[in-house]
Amino acid sequence: MRFIPSLFTVLNLFCGFLSIINAEAGNISQACLFIIYAAMLDAFDGVAARFTGTSSRFGVELDSLADVVSFGAAPSFILYKAYFFAHDGFGITLASLIMIFGALRLARFNSQLVGYDKNYFSGVPVPIPAVTISAFFLYYFNKNFSPYTSEIFAYSIAIVMPLLMVSKFKYDTAPKFSKRDIKEHPVKFILVLLIIALIIVTRGEGLFAFCLFYISTGIFRSIKSQTRKFFFRKKISEQEAEESLKLKSSN
User: Fold this and answer.
1) Least confident of 34-43, 102-111, 185-194, 195-204
2) Using CA atoms in the order 236, 237, 239, 240, what is the torsion angle rounded to 10 degrees?
3) How far apart are alpha carbons 164 and 129 in whole angstroms?
């Protein structure tokens, strides 16, 4: 039973390799699909590890190595082959950022594995930018989007996504599909079901919208937190000022 989670991880890694091969051959759509397959396998290896009770440090390290290929090197190569190849060295640099910052994000996650907040990720988890890139090129690049809009999104994805991966924005972890987790986080499970339904009804096009929504949650959570802190500090300052005035008037 111990080999089952690692088998999913190896298949994830293999899908990343197939994605690179297809991107090199110019078959961008197929390359994007292999990244989505890799993301599904990446989700299943965690489920399998919990189900079989075989979680291990070896599995964590193997998972990170597979993710560097499937969600780092592969999407970076897709970005390069699908758009940035025309920009020479500048294009190579931009396309490589997903891979470089993805590796940094994974190294930080592994180094903080003990004692980290299990309800949240610090920074966008590595598979999300890869799936976003795949959904973008599958359904929107020069298709649902005009060439000008496609260009804006290509640059935005290449620059913003890497920064979000190493940011301190908090993102919800995936639900564990256990009775205890369902009772503790019912809203999260309802959202997951609605998102799955959306993706099925839209025949995959909704995947891009989901990725953008998920990415925005960490940003809005941070804005909300900072706004609360600002007004809370302001309220405390006003109370302290009132107390100071009262003391002066009493003296």
Assistant:
1) 185-194
2) 120
3) 9
> In the numeric block, which tokens belong to residue 36?
């989505």
Q: Residue 165 CA to chain centroid, in angstroms?
A: 7
Q: In three state form, how does the secondary structure of 88-100 look? A: HHHHHHHHHHHHH
In this predicted structure, the answer to whether residue 249 has a pLDDT above a threshold of 70 is no
Phi, psi at 120, each rounded to 5° = -140, 150
Q: pLDDT-derived band of residue 195, with 50, 70 and 90 as boundaries? A: confident
Q: What is the pLDDT of residue 157?
A: 94
Inter-CA distances, 45 with 10, 11, 69, 158, 211, Å = 10, 10, 16, 28, 21
| Axis-axis angle for helices 147-165, 206-250 (nearest 10) | 50
Q: Is the dihedral of CA 160, 139, 203, 35 positive or negative?
A: negative
Q: Angle at Cα 224 formed by Cα 102 and Cα 171, nearest 5°?
A: 30
Sketch out the chain's domains with CATH numbers.
3-174+205-216 (1.20.120.1760)
Taking 3-state DSSP, the helix, strand and coil percentages for the chain, each rounded to the nearest 5, stand at: 80, 0, 15
